[in-house]
From TrEMBL:
Reaction catalyzed: N-terminal glycyl-[protein] + tetradecanoyl-CoA = N-tetradecanoylglycyl-[protein] + CoA + H(+)
EC number of this enzyme: 2.3.1.97
Main location, first listed in the record: cytoplasm
Species this chain originates from: Dekkera bruxellensis
Gene behind this protein: NMT1
Designated name of the protein: Glycylpeptide N-tetradecanoyltransferase
Organism taxonomic ancestry: Eukaryota, Fungi, Dikarya, Ascomycota, Saccharomycotina
Cellular compartments annotated: Cytoplasm
Length: 493
């Protein structure tokens, strides 16, 4: 089995996922007046530039979203993945030789300069090493302006989901100095593809030190994490990439919603449109100061049973989903005990429920926070970035998904719920809010002033053939599919 890294929920699709190669067309800043005349990076550019985190096959990939002959995919052609244009007649595993006794018991050989290392993320010093590696090498722009600001709380949330295993936090160190120079992770998952449910893993955070990209460490990391996953009798994986690999089960489009347009403009990521004033742009993206949904409050542990029931029923409308136990959903929507005690402004994951007058939970929504550090700016040191995560509502669940009345009711309800999410996100310092065309998001993206991005995120299944799953946009016109919507119910971190 080969598994590959995902792309972050940002919006850049052209450069190779190396960590992130961010193409910058920054305008020269001479004066305030001249600056506004020159073409700055737009919000779309900002998000575009951050979609392509390190690719598991970065040494094989092309920058264009066009398939190459399979013979040119040196690594992926050896793996149990669906080939381009391969006809799928039946869904299911590609390699059915699922026998743990056949799995090598020893790690794959690695260059003598390096050694494998199981990273102990419960150890503060090793957590700091992971932070440093990802901060310096996972996401970067060409002029070193922005970097993801990971923290201990984020890693605890993303890498310590129930059932996590230390051996699935795989590092590579320089043998002589013990310096951490590469990493890949897997976390357990239960996936549903239409009527089929199976154990799998999600692959994330594949990162190789910039100076070691020619050592073929990325494919080796994938092979080794695959071996370790197989030893636990798990044979499938889910991964995402902004790069086109053999062969996506679905593709979703990025969308972004400015929350603090003036700040984004000041740091050079939003252009002042011709004929518009700054005041007009600020007014365009203005939000109410308070939320509108009656009964809206923070989710608490006591809500887990009700939220789990609602979410499970709501997710049945999609064809590609992840099934969560109550323990898993508690972790993903509330975090650990320490996270639950924090105010919203300090949390990694923020979740709200709507409770009606009969004390029934009728809705919930969530978003997670992963800010940027802004380098070389005398005024701003960070950008607050929120990402729409999971949500569910009772609205329309009593009718078929594509019923006209149910769709209209769902559209209105989601607009209200996600509008409140935007208000809350801005209230805790978020400057931009990102979403995909997955779930039922296309029903509200345009009306809530999300701008369609230029980046696309491909979803892949390892060792599993499946019919295509709609991603919420037309592959020819690139426009939102308002009627069909998306059948992707999975949100990858």
């Amino acid at each position: 089995m080969d598994v590959q890294v995902k792309a972050h929920l940002f919006n850049r699709a052209q450069p190779k996922r190396g960590p992130i190669a961010m193409a910058n067309n920054k305008a020269t800043k001479n004066s305030k007046k001249e600056e506004e005349k020159l073409p700055k990076k737009s919000i779309a550019d900002l998000l575009k530039q951050l979609a392509l985190a390190t690719s598991a096959s970065s040494e094989d990939d092309t920058e264009e979203q066009k398939p190459k002959p399979m013979s040119e995919y040196k690594f992926w052609k050896t793996q149990p993945v669906t080939k381009f244009n391969e006809a799928v007649s039946e869904e299911g595993p590609i390699d059915r030789r699922e026998d743990v006794s056949r799995v090598p018991k020893e790690p794959y050989a690695i260059l003598d300069l390096f050694e494998w290392s199981d990273l102990d993320i419960e150890d503060d010093s090793e957590m700091s090493e992971l932070y440093e590696l990802l901060y310096e090498h996972y996401v970067e722009d060409h002029d070193s302006t922005f970097r993801f600001a990971y923290g201990k709380a984020f890693f605890n949330w993303a890498l310590k989901t129930p059932g996590w295993k230390k051996q699935w936090h795989l590092g590579v160190r320089v043998k002589k100095t013990k310096k951490l120079v590469a990493f890949i992770s897997a976390v357990p998952a239960t996936l549903r593809v239409r009527g089929n449910t199976f154990k799998a893993v999600e692959i994330n955070f594949l990162c190789v030190h910039k100076q070691l990209r020619n050592k073929r460490l990325a494919p080796l990391l994938i092979k080794e994490i695959t071996r370790r996953v197989h030893l636990e009798n798990v044979w499938q994986a889910l991964y995402t990439s902004g790069t086109l690999l053999p062969s996506p089960i679905s593709t979703c489009r990025y969308a972004h919603r400015p929350l603090n347009w003036e700040k984004l403009c000041d740091v050079g990521f939003s252009a002042l449109p011709l004929g518009k004033t700054r005041a007009q742009m600020v007014a365009k993206y203005a939000l109410p100061s308070i939320t509108k949904c009656t009964g809206l409050r923070r989710m608490e542990v006591r809500d887990v049973d009700a939220v789990h029931s609602l979410f499970t029923r709501f997710q049945k409308r999609y064809q590609l989903t992840q099934l969560f136990t109550k323990e898993e959903l508690t972790h993903l929507l509330l975090g650990d005990d320490e996270e639950q005690e924090k105010p919203d402004g300090e949390k990694v994951i923020v979740t709200y429920v709507v409770e009606n007058t009969e004390k029934k939970i009728t809705d919930f929504f969530s978003f997670y926070v992963l800010p940027f550090t802004v380098l070389n700016n005398s005024v701003y040191k960070s950008l607050g970035v929120g990402y729409l995560y999971y949500y569910a509502t009772e609205t329309g669940l009593d009718k078929p998904r594509y019923d006209a009345q149910a769709t209209n009711e769902l559209k209105k309800r989601l607009e209200n719920l996600i509008s409140d999410a935007l208000v809350l996100a801005k209230g805790i310092g978020m400057d931009v809010f990102n979403a995909m065309t997955s779930q039922d998001n296309v029903l509200f993206l345009e009306d809530l002033k999300f701008g369609p991005g230029d980046g696309f995120l491909n979803y892949y299944l390892f060792n599993y053939k499946a019919f295509p799953v709609g991603g919420g946009f037309d592959s020819q016109t690139r426009e939102y599919e308002l009627e069909k919507r998306s059948d992707v119910g999975v949100v990858m971190l």
